[in-house]
Specification:
ATP/GTP-binding protein, mainly beta, 1 helix, two-stranded antiparallel ribbon, four-stranded antiparallel beta sheet
Length: 93
């Protein structure tokens, strides 16, 4: 009888599509950050970095204060989020 070399199946993690929020240091304290894939981006948002709209289907970043209740969430273009350190200090809209 031939031997079957099959991979052991790994348990699959359930995913919501968005990555779990991570904690980073922001100019006004700790900030939670979540990356949203384009497949989960369903609404239009205004980016505080460039003041342009983030269209549905565009991957982007959501950031909010760690000590807040989430009402201060802001949706950023990924490029604008990555360039935030080159902007004026304390200039988070």
């Amino acid at each position: 009888m031939p031997r079957k070399n099959r991979r052991q199946s790994e348990p699959r993690r359930p995913t919501s599509g968005a990555q779990d929020p991570s904690l980073i240091d922001g100019p006004d304290g700790p900030v939670r950050v979540r990356r949203i894939p384009g497949s989960n981006a369903e609404k239009v948002y205004r980016c505080p970095g460039c003041d342009l709209e983030i269209q549905p289907g565009t991957p982007h970043v959501v950031a909010w204060a760690d000590d807040g209740d989430g009402d201060d969430r802001r949706h950023w273009h990924t490029g604008c989020w990555n360039a935030r350190s080159r902007r004026q200090p304390g200039r988070w809209r």
